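Saturday, quiet lab. Running sequence design on the structure tokens for the scaffold JK sent over.
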């Protein structure tokens, strides 16, 4: 895991060298459309407020739960007893990125969505609201956190979410056997190189031309940077977009040559 100073150094380099996020210098029509119509979509969709109200509620909760970490662990707390407030503050994806995933699902209309790392269910709720007709499968290793997420889904009236509890090493293969394809996936679980690359290989068997995979915290550590490099250089990946905190890969055969973009967001 990089120190805050190391991460800041990397972010400054990213910010200064990335494309400006307005579409200038992007010659791919597909990525130009992604940047101008999805990345920069400033519309306030009604579900935004609903999910952010949930986030605000969780950020005020002093309720403490016992948490079992299967991945790289918390960067803030080494205790297994954590408050809902601290989990919401440190583990939940910021609304900027959760809302981007909402817009991507709304635009690309995937029928099967997979999330590795439910946490409290904030990003899951965004994915669910984006297309209530889609099947959202979300997986969480820590049973106590999964229980909080489940209650949040119930309170929001979300009906298209299947929450699977348990270590991804034991649950992912079984989940993949039950679905024909993975149209859209957000991988926010074990922040280590080997597991991340393994999840990619497992998901790869279920991808299609239109599938989209998003990997969280690709610059979190040397291991995650190595995993991201392996993933984006895989022969099946035709295009990647590095937004620093997340990395997106596409498999569209329209990209006759591999294209990798680093875009400011």
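Result came back. Writing it out in full:
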């Amino acid at each position: 895991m990089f120190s805050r100073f190391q991460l800041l150094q990397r972010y400054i380099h990213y910010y200064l060298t990335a494309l400006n996020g307005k579409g200038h210098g992007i010659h791919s029509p597909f990525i130009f459309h992604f940047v101008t119509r999805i990345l920069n979509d400033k519309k306030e969709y009604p579900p935004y407020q609903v999910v952010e109200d949930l986030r605000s509620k969780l950020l005020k909760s002093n309720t403490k739960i016992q948490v079992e970490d299967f991945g790289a662990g918390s960067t803030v707390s080494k205790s297994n007893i954590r408050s809902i407030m601290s989990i919401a503050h440190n583990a939940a994806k910021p609304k900027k990125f959760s809302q981007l995933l909402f817009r991507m699902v709304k635009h690309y209309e995937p029928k099967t969505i997979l999330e590795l790392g439910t946490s409290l269910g904030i990003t899951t709720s965004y994915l669910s609201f984006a297309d209530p007709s889609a099947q959202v499968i979300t997986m969480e290793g820590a049973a106590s956190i999964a229980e909080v997420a489940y209650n949040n889904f119930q309170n929001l009236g979300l009906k298209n979410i299947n929450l699977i509890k348990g270590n991804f090493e034991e649950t992912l293969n079984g989940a993949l056997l039950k679905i024909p394809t993975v149209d859209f996936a957000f991988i926010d679980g074990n922040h280590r190189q080997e597991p991340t690359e393994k999840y990619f290989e497992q998901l790869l068997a279920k991808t299609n031309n239109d599938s989209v995979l998003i990997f969280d915290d690709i610059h979190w550590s040397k291991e995650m940077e190595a995993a991201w490099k392996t993933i984006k250089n895989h022969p099946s990946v035709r295009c990647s977009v590095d937004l620093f905190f997340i990395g997106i890969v596409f498999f569209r055969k329209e990209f006759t040559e591999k294209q990798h973009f680093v875009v400011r967001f």
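Notes for JK: The mean pLDDT is 93. The radius of gyration is 18 Å. Ask whether to fix the surface positions before the next round.
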